[in-house]
# Entry
Amino acid sequence: MTGVFINYRTGDGQGMAALLHERLRGEFGEQKVFLDSTGLPPGQLFAPELKRRLQESTVLIVVLGKEWLDIRDDDGNRRIDNRDDYVRYEIRKSIKWKKAVLPVLLDGASMPPAAQLPPDIVKLPVFQYRHLRSREADIDLAEIVRILREHIPLREPSSPGGGTTNTAHAPQGAAAAGDGATATYNHHGSRR
# Structure
């Protein structure tokens, strides 16, 4: 079961999402942290696996840079306004399924105003957020890890038999069946 699902926008924060992923994997273990660019093997169907990993997660981290709200598609439309946009889909589903949502604001970025968000993710600014600053990354990452420990079991050292054991229990969030929203994805041609 994935504990943390990292949501990010290509062109606005994928480098910091990778840094976050690396740190959280070290704290919680590889199976407890999901980042699509490294978590899906080649040849796997993207949409069903993404939905499965999102459903299994306890916490959605939304990585928000200064350009997050205004990144545009090839036609000049804001990506977040496309109902099939994966960033929007992941946020929408996590809110609907009552998951913990942790917005992470990068290097002085502000929380997007509710009035500028699509109606199905208008609650995003209501969630408590944390900062992740390049110059204070160690301090900020330690704070994010501290918060996540309330939701996700820590990785235990390997037992003498080579396996791992987890004795901590993560809080259970409410989950519901999806609303049938679909989206298509081509990893090389489409963008998050």
In short: Residues 114 and 126 are 9 Å apart (CA to CA). Confidence is low (pLDDT under 50) at residues 159-191.
